[in-house]
């Protein structure tokens, strides 16, 4: 029996269960917005403008399910995403050209912006990662690309390959009015109705958004020009990231989980039961399980390609 899509021993678990992922997820959305065609797909065919928080929580749910969900759960979610994307198209106002949401180069860009942001932010936040683990993480995430309709070899599977891809796509990236507005939304998002009880705490979000912005490449920050540049930004940002991560780690699990949608929490509860049945020790939750150096269960094989299911 395979208890989860990714093995708890994987680098995927090490990164995706870390609380620095809040910064990483917002940074990924800010980076994705720099693609002038991709941002039009978001702008025209999603509810991002009215509910940017919802977009972030949906991304969190996808990451959760493709990390510790069951294969059936991940296959079902992936099939749903591919079906929705196949039905959507949008027009690039700069060229008048019609694009599909599931256009190959756009899917690759979204995948790369996400996983490179996750890896970069986790590393800067203090998650202990070796160079070999960085390569392993990107290789593991090439399996996840299949859930949105890509093949493993469509995406970079090592840090060196990712750097080459980002360098190649860089000339086509720019800040559009929609991208700049997207960043502003993410810095001060609307609180969704089901999280209205968090409204008084909304000012606490700004440090997360500001740090997400500060971790973007320098050229991207200069192009956006939304927040002022601080002297020594790199070192200051890294220190602030580590401080925020330490603070988030102090929040008890039962309160931290209140942020997530019910479906995400339910997926985690079901994964916990599967892990217990497979012989893992999960009495103290996923974070304690992830931190162990010795597991009673054998390593879990890589998931099958959902496109072949």
What is this structure's SSE topology?
Blueprint: H1 11-16, H2 21-32, H3 38-45, H4 52-68, H5 71-86, E1 89-91, E2 98-100, H6 104-125, H7 131-144, H8 159-169, H9 177-187, H10 205-214, H11 218-224, H12 233-249, H13 253-256, H14 262-277, H15 286-291
Helix pairs in contact: 2-6, 2-10, 4-14
GO molecular function: oxidoreductase activity
Enzyme class: oxidoreductase
Protein name: Oxygenase MpaB family protein
Keywords, separated by commas or semicolons:
mainly alpha; disordered C terminus; 15 helices
How would you describe what is shown here?
This is Oxygenase MpaB family protein. 57% of the residues lie in helices and 2% in strands. It is mainly alpha-helical. Strands 1-2 form a two-stranded antiparallel sheet. Helix 2 runs antiparallel to helix 6 and helix 2 packs across helix 10. The chain starts with 10 loop residues before the first helix and ends in an 18-residue tail after the last helix. 36% of the residues are buried.
Distance between the termini: 17 Å
Order of helices and strands: HHHHHEEHHHHHHHHHH
Question: What is the 3D form?
Answer: globular
Radius of gyration: 19 Å
So how many helices?
A: 15
Mean pLDDT: 88
- Tally of distinct domains: 1
Structural class: mainly alpha
Binned, the helix content reads 55-70%
**Would you identify the regions where 5 or more consecutive residues have pLDDT less than 50?**
290-309
Major sheet strand order: 1-2
What's the count of strands?
2
- What about the largest sheet? 2 strands, antiparallel
Please sum up the structure shown.
Keywords: Oxidoreductase. The chain is mostly helical and 309 residues long. It is 57% helix and 2% strand.
């Amino acid at each position: 029996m395979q208890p989860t899509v990714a093995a708890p021993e994987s680098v995927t678990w090490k990164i995706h269960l870390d609380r620095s992922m809040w910064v990483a997820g917002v940074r990924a959305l800010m980076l994705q917005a720099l693609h002038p065609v991709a941002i039009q797909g978001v702008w025209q065919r999603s509810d991002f403008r009215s509910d940017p928080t919802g977009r972030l929580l949906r991304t969190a749910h996808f990451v959760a399910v493709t990390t510790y969900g069951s294969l059936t759960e991940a296959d079902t979610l992936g099939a749903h995403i591919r079906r929705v994307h196949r039905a959507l198209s949008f027009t690039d106002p700069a060229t008048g050209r019609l694009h599909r949401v599931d256009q190959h180069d756009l899917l690759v860009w979204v995948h790369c912006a996400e996983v490179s942001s996750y890896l970069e932010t986790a590393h800067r936040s203090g998650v202990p990662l070796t160079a070999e683990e960085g390569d392993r993480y990107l290789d593991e995430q090439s399996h996840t690309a299949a859930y949105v309709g890509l093949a493993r070899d469509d995406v970079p599977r090592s840090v060196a390959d990712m750097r080459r891809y980002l360098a190649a796509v860089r000339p086509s990236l720019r800040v559009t009015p929609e991208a700049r507005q997207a960043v502003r939304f993410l810095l001060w998002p609307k609180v969704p109705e089901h999280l209205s009880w968090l409204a008084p705490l909304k000012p606490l979000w700004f440090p997360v958004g500001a740090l997400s912005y500060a971790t973007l490449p320098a050229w991207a920050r200069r192009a956006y020009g939304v927040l002022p540049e601080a002297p020594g930004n790199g070192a200051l940002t890294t220190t602030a990231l580590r401080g925020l991560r330490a603070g988030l780690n102090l929040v008890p699990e039962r309160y931290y989980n209140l942020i997530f949608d019910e479906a995400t929490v339910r997926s985690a509860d079901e994964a916990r039961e599967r892990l217990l049945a497979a012989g893992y020790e999960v009495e103290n939750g996923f974070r304690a399980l992830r931190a162990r150096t010795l597991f009673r269960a054998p390593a879990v094989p890589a998931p099958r390609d959902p496109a072949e299911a």
